[in-house]
Amino acid sequence: MIITIQDLRTVPAWNGRPGYCASSSRAFFKQYNLDWDAFVHQGIEAEALLATGNALAIHLVEYVKEQHSSYSIKQLENAVEEFDHGR
């Protein structure tokens, strides 16, 4: 699963606001030897963030998994509804 800059900007943060601070996120990437520029343009594999063991990184990955799961369930519900209306 790819984590994107948009995910970073929308994850619920500890302070109740959406998104993580960009400058702190850059520092995090530098601390863990991760490529910030590549992340901004292409995203990063969730496993790379999980491998850091950082609680905020883990929270970000869990948030994205939850978003993808919710989206998939909604797609399934819509498909069933469309099928039922077509009968």
SSE topology:
Elements: E1 2-3, H1 5-10, H2 22-31, H3 36-42, E2 44-45, H4 46-50, H5 55-86
Antiparallel strand pairs: 1-2
Q: How would you characterize this protein structure?
A:
Strands 1-2 form a two-stranded antiparallel sheet. It has helices at 5-10, 22-31, 36-42, 46-50, 55-86, and strands at 2-3, 44-45. The chain starts with a strand and ends with a helix. The chain has 87 residues and is mainly alpha-helical. The longest helix is centred in the last third of the chain and has 32 residues, at 55-86. It has one domain (2-86). It is elongated. It contains five helices and two strands; from the N terminus they run βαααβαα.
Briefly characterize the structure.
It is built from five helices and two strands.
Considering DSSP H and I runs of 4 or more, what fraction of the residues is helical? Answer: 55-70%
Major sheet summary line: 2 strands, antiparallel
- Radius of gyration using CA atoms only: 16 Å
Class from helix and strand fractions: mainly alpha
In total, the number of domains comes to: 1
User: In whole angstroms, how far apart are the ends?
Assistant: 36 Å
What general outline do the C-alpha atoms trace? elongated
Strand order, largest beta sheet:
1-2
| Total E-strand runs | 2
